[in-house]
Structure formats: C-alpha cells, structure tokens
Amino acid sequence: MTRRQPVVVILILGILTTISPFSIDMYLPGFPAIAKSLNTTIDQVQLSLTAYLIGISFGQLLYGPLLDRYGRKMPLYAGLVLYLTASLGCALTTSIETLIMMRLLQALGGCVGLVAAQALVRDLFPVTQTAQVLSLLVLVMAVSPMIAPTVGGYTTVALGWHSIFLILAAITALILVAIYFVLPDGKKADPSLSLRPKAVLSSFLTVLKQPQFLTYTLVAGIATSAPFAYIAGSPDVFMNLYHVSEQEYGWIFAFLAISIIAPTQLNHILLKHFRNEQIIFVTLSYQSIVGLLMVWGTWAGWFGPYGLIAVLFLFLTGQGLTGPNASALSLAPFSRHAGSAAALMGSFRMGIGALVSAAVSVFHNNTAIPMVGTMTVCVVSGLAIYLTGNRVIQYRNRKFGLEESLSEVTL
C-alpha cells in the first residue's frame, strides 16, 4: 500500500464496522413511534433489537469460513446486498412480526462487515500494528453512536421511522461502491479450505484450542457487552423514567459516545509503554470499581438524570481500551484461520450482547437497576476471566518455553 492508502483503507474498514452500530443505534429514538405505528408495545419493539443481535451472532459464524475459502470481497458483496434488501423490507413493514424477521435478515447480511474488517486488518497490517489499527476502527465506530441516535431522533420526528431504514439502505449502497473501487482484496481465496461441516468445525476447533484466543475472546465478549445493556435499557430509562424527548435522548446518547473516543486515542500512547494485557487489567479493574459505585448509587437514589449520565460516562471510558487490546490478542496467533477466528470472536461477543439485552428486559422493574446492574456484572466477570485465563497462558508459555509476551503463532 502507498503512504496514503492505509488511511483510506482504515476509513473504509471503519465504515464497514459502523453498519451494525448504525443499525442498532439509529432507530432507538423511534421505539415509541414504531410501537404506536405497528399497534404494539415497546417491549415487543425491543425484540427487534434482540433479533438483530442474534442474527449478528450466528451470521458471523457463517462468514468466517466463507471469508477464508473465497477471499474477502465476494462474501462482503453478498452480505451487504442482503443487508440492503432487508433494510428496504424494514422500511415497508406493517407489522411487528415482519419487522423482527427483517431485522434478523438485516443482521445476517450486515454482520459480514464486522468479520471482514477484522480479518482484513490481520491481512493488510503487521501483527505489531494490529491493536493500533483496531483502535482507529473503534474511533470510527465511536462516531456512529454520536451521529446515529441524533439523526434517528430528528428523522423520526420529521420523516417518520420508516425513513431510518431507507437511509441505512442508501449508506450501504455507497459502501459497496467504495469496496469495489478502493478496498484491497486482502487474503486470496484458499480452495484447499473445505466448507463441509466437518472441515468448518475442524477449523473452528483449531482456533478454540488456542488458549490465548479463548481467554481474550471471553474477556472481550463479556466485558464489552456492557454497552448492550445500556443500549437496551437507556430508551426506557431516559424517555419513560426521566421523560426526555426523542431528540434529547439522541443528544444524551451522542454525549456518552464521546466517552469511547478519547480512550481509543489514548491507547496509541499507552501501547508505547505498556503491553496489551496490562492495559486490559487496569481498565477492567477501574470499570469494576465505577460499576459497583454506579449500582450502589442508583439503588440508594443518589443519581438524577444528570448524575446517571455522569457516572455512565465514567464507566464507558473503559470500553475504548478493553475492546481493541483484547481483540488484538485474540487474533494475534492466527494467519490462515484469521477469518474463522474473527467470526468466532464476533459471534460470541454479539451472542453475549443478545443475552445481556434480553436480561435487561427480563429484569425490567421501572428503575435503572437492571441496566446498571447488568453492565457491572459484565465487567466484573470479564476481570475474573482475565485473571484466570492469563495464569493459564503464562503457565503454558513457561511449560513450552514460549516468550512471555503474547506474540504471533501462525495457525
């Protein structure tokens, strides 16, 4: 790549990863309008979010082997065309059941962006730069929660909630053009990789047998699922409990998204002085402390809307550090199976996200406790897994005489 090309490539990869955040965040302010239009309840509309997360989880498992077998671009084209078609279906729906089904199909198509972007980072950049590049992708992703709910709120009021999905379809069409003309091919097709179920499972098992992958995928998947609790619970907490408008909710969501941006840039500096695993440990410890204070303060009635926004801001700052570093450590051991590794990692993360979002609905009690409690459980569990898994990795490294740092092992 030329000197300028990496910047353009990172931008395109970042936009690819924003497909799902936009799909999740942009229609949140429209929940009340969707419920009224389709003669249903907000709880039923929330199921369309859960369906999307389920679709992402399973869809990524399909795309991993396809990206390894056919190269990166052909599966990208197929998935994005499916996403575009399903987005039009969402815009034209007249029932909540159809919306839920279209959201599932939308996720099955759009999730290709998450898997392909991470696999292409592994293809196009040296392993020593993976965490830095992933941090830049998180930066691009962090912009979408600032823009999407705000645009969604004003769009819902001005044009109706159906127009949100028309906008998503138009954005996807532009992404397809950029992929065709600008994005490098990445890893070529590998005909030796079979798509038979036995071969695909064997590829996944090869990835899962790597302790480094398993540990940091679990850490990333569970700890970084905390925002899904916030996403699922915040429309009810702010619009029903604190009675803010759709537009005000969009601005609150945008403000809290800023808490992710600064740490992603700080990560570049920290990586010059600390290892990925050290950053993860400190970040999860910090989030666990803030989370416990957030739960206690919410239960004790310390926070009004502004107090809750402030403590959520402090909590979410950790997401911009844990995610990129844990993802980099998960993918570092792989070259040939990078697509399958990225698929498993993304699938697990979104699967946990679906469970987390469902948990917020199940424990709904007209307070913010289900939301903040679930967020805290995620990071505390992630910290516990990190401490246990890191000991296993260190023991394995000593046993086989490997380097102390978690360096690349090509699989």
TrEMBL record:
One GO BP annotation here? Answer: xenobiotic detoxification by transmembrane export across the plasma membrane
Membrane topology, as annotated: Multi-pass membrane protein
GO molecular function annotations of the record: sodium:proton antiporter activity; xenobiotic transmembrane transporter activity
Question: What keywords would UniProt list here?
Answer: Cell membrane, Membrane, Transmembrane, Transmembrane helix, Transport
The chain positions of domain Major facilitator superfamily (MFS) profile read 9-393
Instruction: Say if the entry is tagged with keyword Transport.
Output: yes
CDD domains in alphabetical order: MFS_MdfA_MDR_like
Write down any Gene Ontology CC term.
plasma membrane
Q: Where in the cell is it found?
A: Cell membrane
Query: Where is the chain membrane-spanning?
Result: 7-24, 44-63, 75-94, 100-121, 133-154, 160-183, 213-231, 251-271, 278-297, 303-321, 342-363, 369-389
Q: Does the keyword Cell inner membrane apply?
A: no
- A Pfam short name: MFS_1
UniProt lists the family membership as follows: Belongs to the major facilitator superfamily. Bcr/CmlA family.
Q: Which PANTHER family match?
A: MAJOR FACILITATOR SUPERFAMILY (PTHR23502), POLYAMINE TRANSPORTER 2-RELATED (PTHR23502:SF132)
Show the NCBIfam families listed in the entry: efflux_Bcr_CflA
Q: What is the official name of this protein in its record?
A: Bcr/CflA family efflux MFS transporter
